Structure prediction request, 197 residues.
Amino acid sequence: MRNIFALLLIILLLTSCSPRDFLSRRLATDLIAASDDFKTPQQYILQTGVLSNKDYASPEYIVLQHHGWISATTAPCTPGMAPPPCWDVLLTPSGVDVVHSILRPEESGKSSLALPAAKRQLVAVTGISKLGNSADVEFTWKWIPLDEIGAALYSSDVQYRSTVAFRQFDDGWRVVESTPHVPQSMSDALKNAEPIP
Prediction:
């Protein structure tokens, strides 16, 4: 009789626990990968037309020049644009081919083009530090380019380390999304990611 009672008590305890009640690396991996902030693809905003020297000399524009996708000629600076000289940036014929192959139809003809460039891929959860109903989860991730421009701007060889806050609620653990007054939301964790040497 005692064995039956003990068995019933164990079954009752096991059925009252949800898989989300215990923050394991597997659960943390699933929750991070499903997070809206993590799943949002990285867009690259390509600006054509007159740009300041500071914008035109940015690393991204240098990469696009190196690939032969953009060219520029000097142009007069518009009021408030600094520092001179300014540049009139145009897509080259090969740049037009690359951009139009990935451009959404509604973006065509604009001087500011929002191009999908890369998505994040979770490599591993590398550590969990729990304190009560809160936890910090450290994880590594990398960029996966979506097209030629993404491959030129985002290396899939570089891995990044981020730490995100988790909280336990009555229905289980959750990733802390972009909200004020939290230690490290997912949005902040991705912005503050550090490349792994």
